[in-house]
Amino acid sequence: MTSHDVINPATEKVARTIDLVGVEETDEAVARAVEVGPTWRAMAPADRGRLLRRFSEVVDEHLDELAALEVENAGHTIGNARWEAGNVRDVLAYYSAAPERLFGQQIPVAGGIDLTFKEPLGVVSIIVPWNFPMPIAGWGFGPALAAGNTVVLKPAELTPLTAMRLGELALEAGVPEGVFTVLPGKGSVVGERFVTHPDVRKVCFTGSTAVGQGIMRKAADQLKRVTLELGGKSANIVFDDADLDVAAAAAPMSFLDNAGQDCCARTRILVQRNVFDAFMERFEAGMRAVRVGDPNDEATQMGPLISAGQREAVRGFVENSNESVDVAFRGTAPEGAGYWYPPTVVLPGSTNDRVWRDEIFGPVVAVLPFDDEADAIRLANDTAYGLSGSIWTRDVGRAIRVSRAVEAGNLSVNSHSSVRYSTPFGGYKASGIGRELGPDALDAFTEVKNVFISTDN
Ligand code: NAP
Ligand code: MG
Description:
By secondary structure, the chain is α/β, with parallel strands linked by helices. Helices cover 38% and strands 21% of the residues. The protein folds into 2 domains: 2-230 and 431-454, Aldehyde Dehydrogenase, Chain A, domain 1 (3-Layer(aba) Sandwich), CATH 3.40.605; 235-420, Aldehyde Dehydrogenase, Chain A, domain 2. The strands form 4 sheets. The protein has a 7-stranded mixed sheet, sandwiched between helices. Helix 3 (63-74) runs antiparallel to helix 6 (161-173).
């Protein structure tokens, strides 16, 4: 074990010192997960459902504690952190109904009966990033446990605290030891071991595209199942028939929520040319009013970035870029301790600019005008990514045409909503493979088994 300081990004002070686990502890946890697997999958569906419901209730009983821990560890605003803990509760409650509803099919065949079963994979590993430590953990372990798998989970090194607490709360709720184990450790150690361990049947990864690609390559050795939730560079398309006041008022938080460290952030705004100036005027007023500061303050809308390194990465796109970057306007950020960065709006010179192409993962948005519907679709799709996007228009036909044409997994019309626990979430193209949440998430944690029973013998 090596000791590791977890830093509060709003103060730069040490929040906790924890022990990081290594390969040996990881192998022990996987061995335990293998051992308890048969009991967990054989548990009566209603009993497994009841335990998940109890887990959900225990999370709810500790909601304020979990939220406070996330504010301290990740610098999330208190309002967001409460929502995030509530999301874990809701995901568990939603999937607690799944054990009794994991239906197969009965398929008409000659000479007998044909049945399909959705069988658990075995030991499933979840690798979680630092941007949404609680929700992303829950989107993995909720459906994975419901489907009868046992789970090992690695939180990000920067943000292990809430996941560790969720591991304890699972035990408190009565989930048997070894069924769900949280392993704080390095990606290069624990994460790698998940990928190479022969008893781990699946890697459910959220994080950067580069690491996701590496995991997929290595998973090929054992034909290990993967779900990948990667980056994004989502478009917010504003047509001239939209309610401009509403569209402009919604635009700031569509890329400033969680200080822009959100794979669904709408970081490319496309505005129809004839309303460009009118939109920008309203957008600027809205953005300057965003409150950046102490995440413990109920009125705060945006906190700090997660780390000094992340802030340097963001600066590398704007201040320290080797391209000239035209900053249209900026919001404010506190001075002094904390990894602060002001909300920033840039006007790219062309669609080749890094600020237009690359995921910045900070509070920076790029804005470009477009001419017509075809131009908007072309620009929206001119990206390696395809996670989310928004379309602002009052024309229903256009809303549907453009929603169907944008290559992304999660679109919203006259709204920036991306994530609901009851609807599928995931990316096209370089944004990933597979879907989480909603009714289909269980497919990612099960194998379909087909059984034919002869009626002739
Ligand atoms: P990352 O390296 O992909 O980390 C995500 C998770 O993967 C962490 O738990 C990390 O562990 C683990 N990991 C790292 N290397 C691994 C490996 N070789 N094998 C298995 N697991 C490994 O992401 P990051 O470096 O924190 O962030 C870099 C960029 O990724 C961001 O700037 C952003 O663009 C993107 N990102 C996207 C999302 C998203 O939601 N799609 C989330 C986070 C980051 P450690 O914590 O120990 O490194
Ligand atoms: Mg990394």
